[in-house]
Amino acid sequence: MTASSDSFATPGFDLHRPAPRAARKPKRLVAHGHQREDPYYWLNRRQDPAVLAHLQAENAYAEAALQPLAALRQTLYEEMLARIEEDDLSVPVRLGAWMYYSRTESGKAYAIHARKRIDPQAPETWQDSPEELLLDENIEAAGKPFYEVGDFEVSQSGRFLAWAEDTRGNRQYRLKIRDLFSGKTLRLRKTPERCRITSLVWANDDQTLFYTVEDAQTQRSFQLWRHQLGDAEDVLLRTEHDERFSLSLMRTRSNGFLVLSAGSHTTNELRLLPADQPRARWQLFARRRAGIEYEIDHHGERLLVRVNDTGPNFRLVETALDNWQRAAWRELLPHDEEVVIEGVDLWQRWQVLSLRVRGQQRLRVTPLRADGSAAGESHDIGFDEPACSVELEDLPEWDSAILRYEYESLSTPDSVFDYEPLTRRSTLRKQSKVLGGFDASHYRSARIEARAADSTAIPVSIVWRRDTALDGSAPLWLEGYGAYGIATDPWFSSTRLSLLDRGWVFALAHVRGGGELGQRWHDGGRLANKANSFSDFIACAEALADAGYSARGRILASGGSAGGLLLGAVLNQRPELFGAAILEVPFVDVVTTMLDPDLPLTVGEYEEWGNPQRRRDYQRMLAYSPYDQIRAQAYPPMLVEAGLHDSQVMYWEPAKYVARLREHKTDQHPLLFITSLEAGHAGASGRYEQLRERARQLAFAIAALAG
């Protein structure tokens, strides 16, 4: 139940000390005959002691301003920690002769990965087997300021584990291999390619590991390498020269093929290698064609292809293993204007389509015969809540008798279900425990539509406590992203309860540019249509106020990375609409960054934002670039966060943005800028430090909208 108001009394900010002021060192930037002056361009010199001193001064100023909130931050941290089951265990997954799982232990910040052997004579007794430790991230992280595991792959026999680890927060992952039978980590010479791993996959021979690596400068995944156990040198197999395209590896669940994808934001092509022939030639399935995307799965003597060659929502075709020509493709499911085929997964006995029908997720199951043909009618797995998130789990066993999916909503914790297609029965295997008396019935969720400037209906997902008055008095946290065709489906957050239990409302704006309604939704908020993302977010805020969920000036806007771009543009346009804002690693210096092809990931981003080397794109991007469009006006209280080792949004973008805001804004509201000096794009590593960062955000929000 809601705690007493005395428990939630909120002090303000301490803004008595002067805010840091970055030195102005004007630099003239010229493009297409247009001149800009950037006084804070110098902040991109990472090695300059003056830059680090400025970031440290901003950190000290922010912590001093937040000092009156110290008790609240600690209270929030303890609340959030108390909801978490610190000793936790994942739902085990069978692969070969073992059951695999991960667990966490009280007081330890990272996961422990382990397995237990299955007795073939009594498989149900596997839990009685001794535990075999695969990887204890706590041991690997000891003495390191940051630790994160990237790709994690066990070989087919179960003997070898290959993983990639980042110890700086810059998403540069080093290859590690362990012999699980002996427990020894293999000695691998430290070579440049082995320190920039982006994906891993084993061949069936248990000796050959394929991996992709990123370019040291642009951080684009651009090369395919082969490692043979015991060899000192690895073999470079392929280099992708088109800077719009990145490489990644996967294996079909049938264990028939390894798949190499070369993909941009709008186009891709795949190459296949028989998994039992690691020295064979990778074969091109279908050459890249602008705007055409496809994916492949394998079953017996056929390949299943999801492709958007006849429409943006994709269709489903099949082709024989011995004839991949387009003319031989046979259509199984045509393109549908109302249904988006987001993915297709094959098991020996099941085909599962991940669909979106008017934005709502569905899983469609079809039983299969041995030859891969349909053995009966298809059916959908039903879900009750209108705003939810559903994800099919990647059970690796080809002959699995069950399917598994994860389900959550704004008011339902993450839940893992086993589904029996023959009986059409779902069995809850695990629901993330929320300690401290959580009761889902205390909360209400809804999905409404805001009307955009061009009359497009924009979905908004909302959650609140049932005893919160919806009369416009509640503060509201409004989050948005809207880029790359990524769908931001409703998710459960136990940390969010600390807001909801204080009378807040939380809402998620599904603006154009995301993927909630398919490719057309993405296209409606990118390139020349990017301005739609901003007006959609504004429309969502106004609709929520008009419906009584909050009021203008009582809404906190939140977004990270490309969502930070969304917020930066919106705050320049309608700052009075919002009572506060939190921008996490925001992409705000759009034009200057996109004009520099040597920066990480820039060229590949042209398909999302445009290429400012072209005059028309330059003018359009300049018109909304948050850094360039800051002007003399009042802005709401703001918390801006960055990571010094961020390789996706460089720390200097938010640093410059805050410096220019300090120069131009006409209000006395708090503007706090915090740079994590030991992390990158995703913030701190380790669950306890992540909770402390979250407590800081929530304390800022509560203080900014107090009253």
From TrEMBL:
UniProt-annotated stretches for the region Disordered: 1-30
UniProt keyword annotations, A-Z: Hydrolase, Protease, Serine protease
Peptidase S9A N-terminal domain boundaries: 20-431
Alphabetical list of InterPro entries matching this protein: AB_hydrolase_fold (IPR029058), Pept_S9A_N (IPR023302), Peptidase_S9_cat (IPR001375), Peptidase_S9A (IPR002470), Serine_Peptidase_S9A (IPR051543)
One of the Pfam families matching this protein, by short name: Peptidase_S9_N
Skewed-composition ranges (Basic residues): 18-30
Range of residues in the leader sequence: none
Protein's name according to its UniProt entry: S9 family peptidase
Organism: Uliginosibacterium sediminicola
